[in-house]
Amino acid sequence: MPPREEFPTKGLEGAPSNDIGWHFGTLVPNARGSIVCKLCGKVVKGGITRLKEHIAHKTGNVAPCPNVTGVIRESMMNVLKESNTKKIDKKRRKDEFLSQLTEEEDEHEGFIDEVSAIRQATRESIQSQHEWHRREEFRRSTGGWDNIYEEGRSSHGSAREHNRERTSKSIPGESEFTLRGAIPELVRSKSSKQPKVNDSFLKSFRRKIGEAVSKFIIYERLPFQLASSPWLYNLIQVATEVGQGVKLTTPYEVSDVYLESEYQRVHDWVNVLKTHWKELGATLM
Question: Domain range for residue 24?
Answer without folding.
Answer: 20-68
